[in-house]
Amino acid sequence: MSTLRDLVEEHTSLGSEDIDHLHRLAGDWQLLSDLSFADLLLWVPVNGDESFLCVAQVRPTTAPTAYQDDQVSRTVGGPEVAHLTIAYRQGRIWREGDPVWYGDTPARHEAIPVRLRDADGEPGGVIAVVGRDTNLSTARTPSQLELNYLTTADDLAQMMADGTFPPMSHRIETTSAPRVGDGLIRLDASGKVTYASPNAQSAFRRLGLPSHLVGEDLAALFARLADDPLEGTDASARVLAALGGEAPSRKEIEARGATVLTRALPLKPAGVPIGGWCWCAT
């Protein structure tokens, strides 16, 4: 099967930096798919922008897929790609339109433009489009956890359109990183916890936190709970780095005989620093 790089090099004129950015995205988008409860398809324009070629695909682990068949290497055009064309030409997220049907499966289409920023941090043109397609067959009123997942997913989608997700400095993790279902923590711009999923709360109880996470300063909490003061300082610094717009690598925290794997990333949709998010897994 052709790889993302093979398909892009064969069918487009995108340069190596553009392709590297698409690889970073495809290496980190399982989280976005799971947060969105949706399939993500990476499309590049061919034949001008009259048709689009799917060069990568990921299915959610948190919801049913909208596609039973593999879409990679599929080229589509005409009315079927109208939403992709709008996102590509106008450089904005497309969310309009009625549900579509794939056989017996109703689905909602969205299209997110993908940008790459230059060395000075300035956004460039749109290089690809991510289709975010949600299977609506099991639609229901979302829980608080699901609403926080969706809110975080929308923030990351806007950052993708801005060219800030995934960040240029981001390294694709080569070993297992926290998964979306392990535990989600949202932070405001000051670093205070505004939401903690039940699994995140359980992880911090194992570290020795008897109270609820909401309202806690996460960086200060890491420093307070860690058995090793140096490790606590390092974990605290990574949270502060994420709040400052960086993308630090994952970190293990040890306390009271428990170990929690964490990863903090910034939230900066439309260039506005609104806080950060952190995964944690035991």
TrEMBL record:
Ranges where the Histidine kinase PdtaS GAF domain occurs: 4-153
Cross-referenced Pfam families: GAF_PdtaS
Domain of life, per lineage: Bacteria
InterPro entries: H_kinase_PdtaS_GAF_sf, PdtaS_GAF
Protein name: Histidine kinase PdtaS GAF domain-containing protein
UniProt organism field: Phytohabitans flavus
